[in-house]
């Protein structure tokens, strides 16, 4: 009886975690689209809907702690619950980053945009979307080989970040030199 209750609770935990992941994925997609298209209304929606992700985090943490305290899982079962607990925190942080980008989108009204950087951000956004989808799939159905593929995707995202930073720095330098020569 207790084992079947634990398995039922674990299934609910998995489903809620997956739903949270889908919500964060939606936030990421919309915030990148809002940034690239300069859509301040969509950016505001992302900010307003962040409360849903935060609610998921609270629910999942509570459920995880309840399962640990009341059912005292051991070995693999405990590792599974702890993995969800850790991953929930990571997902919530991704949602917070999406909100930060949405806020930057709103602040950038009237600022000079850098198309080459925005194009790279759009590409990186697609890569992040694929990464989050693959990580969620890995969590549900994963294999060791798939885990290595997801780790490689993370490295690609890091390269995008470095490239975007370098491009933005170079473009700012160009703009600054151009401005000084006009003065």
TrEMBL record:
It comes from the Bacteria. InterPro entries: PhoU (IPR028366), PhoU-like_sf (IPR038078), PhoU_dom (IPR026022). It holds the Pfam family PhoU. Residues 20-104, 121-174 form the PhoU domain. This is Phosphate transport system regulatory protein PhoU.
């Amino acid at each position: 009886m207790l084992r079947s209750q634990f398995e039922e609770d674990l299934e609910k935990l998995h489903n809620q975690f997956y739903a949270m992941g889908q919500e964060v994925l939606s936030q990421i997609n919309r915030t990148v689209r809002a940034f690239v298209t300069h859509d301040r209304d969509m950016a505001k929606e992302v900010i307003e809907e962040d409360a849903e992700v935060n609610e998921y985090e609270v629910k999942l943490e509570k459920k995880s702690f309840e399962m640990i305290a009341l059912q005292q899982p051991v070995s693999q079962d405990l590792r599974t619950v702890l993995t969800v607990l850790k991953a929930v925190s990571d997902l919530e942080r991704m949602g917070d980053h999406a909100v930060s980008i949405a806020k930057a989108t709103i602040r950038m009204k009237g600022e000079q945009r850098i198309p080459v950087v925005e194009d790279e951000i759009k590409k990186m956004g697609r890569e992040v979307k694929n990464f989050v989808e693959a990580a969620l799939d890995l969590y549900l159905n994963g294999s060791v080989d798939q885990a290595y593929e997801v780790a490689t995707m993370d490295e690609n995202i890091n390269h995008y970040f470095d490239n975007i930073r370098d491009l933005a720095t170079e473009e700012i330098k160009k703009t600054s030199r151009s401005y000084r020569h006009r003065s």
